[in-house]
Specification:
Blueprint: E1 23-32, E2 35-46, E3 49-60, E4 65-72, H1 78-82, H2 85-91
């Protein structure tokens, strides 16, 4: 299995997204040797600008886990998240603190 070191990521393609809606939902699951990372991305077109909300849930194979990161752009309509069943289910999980304190990208 090849290793991917920090700073060595390479884009291998793009995913076309249709413009049929002003609200987009993406759930991404990453399976690693130390656990599973699930990311919820929500995008809403507001006043000509795409606003975003992101939540990252970690589940390490040693049974530790929880929500490692939540980032919501100012202006994102949070009522959409309140009606989102995936977002609501993940929001009930405990907060997970990662050593070093940096869990959300700046």
């Amino acid at each position: 299995m090849p290793l991917l070191y920090r700073g060595r990521a390479q884009m291998v393609g793009t995913l076309p997204v249709s413009a049929d809606s002003d609200y987009k939902r993406f759930n991404i699951s990453l399976f690693a040797r130390n656990g599973v990372f699930e990311e919820l991305y929500r995008f809403k077109h507001v006043n000509g600008v795409w606003m975003s909300a992101m939540m990252v849930q970690v589940a390490y194979y040693n049974v530790k886990g929880g929500i490692a990161c939540v980032r919501i752009t100012e202006g994102f309509p949070v009522e959409l998240l309140e009606r989102d069943s995936d977002w609501a289910a993940y929001s009930k999980l405990p907060k997970f603190h990662v050593k070093g304190g940096r869990t959300c990208p700046q």
